[in-house]
Amino acid sequence: MTESTQNSPPKPRPQEVTIPTIPIEYVSDEDMAIIEAAYAATRSSLSSSISSSICSTSSRFQTNTRSIQSITLLSKRGLNGSSELDIEDSGHLKNTQKRSRVAQPFLHRFRRKRGLSVTDITDTEWCEKQMEFTLRFGKRKISKAMKAGRARHVKLEEEVFKKLKVRVQSVEDTWALKFIDFITGANQLLFEGLTRELPLIGFVEGVWVVGVIDEVRMTENGSDRNSILVDTKTRARHSLPAEPQRRKGRLQLMCYKYLWDTLVADSFPSRLFFDFFSLNHNSILSENIREKAANSGFPAKTLNDMIGYYRNTYRMLPPAQDQLLLRYELQKDQSVLGEDQFAYDPDWLKKQIRGSLEFWLGERDASYTPEEERWKCRHCQFRSICPGNPNPNSPRSSSSSDDSSPSS
Ligand code: SF4
């Protein structure tokens, strides 16, 4: 990670395409924000293996990897290292107890015919119990700060994309539109060296996972082509996020690389895809969608046709580079606060995905965020009912908009 306090955008790197506007994400103060104060108060007690340092050399990648592995182990512990408490342990939730014992896995109850999103995986890394509460009781209402952030996001996005509304009439249309977006984005990448907001879908460990990657850059060196995956976070304050937020960002990007590499290796089981999402691959797409596809150069009439064009496109793409890039920008002027370039760690990623799927598939109860990170509880919507919160009676800490929150 490198730090910069300059107020002007960074110079493009060699072989990088100049970017007219950086993709911006805005904070949900639910997920990612507000953390600095609590983190600052507790980081002195964190394990030394949890690196909060920011550096810019290759040794940083090793540090990051060690941090990630340490945290992974911590995050799977229950309270005091003992067996985990559960929502049923709360006296407030007796009615939930009976339901939870007979309930279907969360994946089937809440993500049926939708698949998991990358955010579903990264949110469980943050705190599985919080995800469980959110699924059961819902998220709190959107705050004014979140609305403002989203409005600004839309405004900035419209400076780069000419958004056209397309009416969809079926779930097949909806998927066809995603494939059109992918094909046009991939063509933009191949011809212009850069694309943004690219939808990804992949079959991971027997589960469909979807996501939208912020940005992909293509570099060429002779006949060698490289795809570089980039994610940009914005910050309300002139500071970099705490290590757990950075770790979450790294996990997110690694998930995208996994999806990307799986896809370009020609691993898209279309029959399973049609079955899982209950799609009729031969039904005729609506006129709007057929017109949009034809105007984009691929006259698909059915979803099956669309998959054919999709396949022809992703086969042309190279695997993603092992080095992944997280960028942090200040919201008010888009100046670069820092960059975290780190190495893809497939072993760590698989453990994370597998651990998350254990939760989603109901193979075990949700775990609490590790003890070293219980400062998260001060800002948690469910702090008053969660048995994992060491101070359930303390008031919720004030919140402020900060780091951006992934939503794909
Ligand atoms: S109170 Fe703490 S342990 Fe409980 S759900 Fe919230 S963050 Fe997780």
Strand content: 5-15%
* CATH architectural group of the largest domain: Alpha-Beta Complex
The shape is globular
- SS content category: alpha/beta
CATH-defined fold name of the largest domain: Lambda Exonuclease, Chain A
If helices are DSSP runs of H or I spanning 4 or more residues, what is the number of helices?
13
> What count of domains describes the coordinates?
2
Q: Tally of extended strands? A: 7
Under CATH at level 1, the class of the largest domain stands as Alpha Beta
Helix content: 25-40%
Rg, Å, rounded: 22 Å
Distance, first to last CA: 24 Å
Which regions are unreliable across 5 or more consecutive residues at pLDDT < 50? 1-101, 399-407
Instruction: Give the mean pLDDT.
Output: 75
What small molecules accompany the polymer chains? Answer: iron/sulfur cluster
List the helices and strands in order: EHHHHEHHHHEEEHHHHEEH
Largest sheet entry? 7 strands, mixed
Explain the overall architecture:
The chain folds into 2 domains: 29-104, no CATH class; 116-379, Lambda Exonuclease, Chain A, CATH 3.90.320. The longest helix has 22 residues, at 171-192. Helix 5 packs across helix 6 and helix 9 packs across helix 13 (346-360). 40% of the residues lie in helices and 14% in strands. It is an alpha/beta fold. Bound molecules: iron/sulfur cluster.
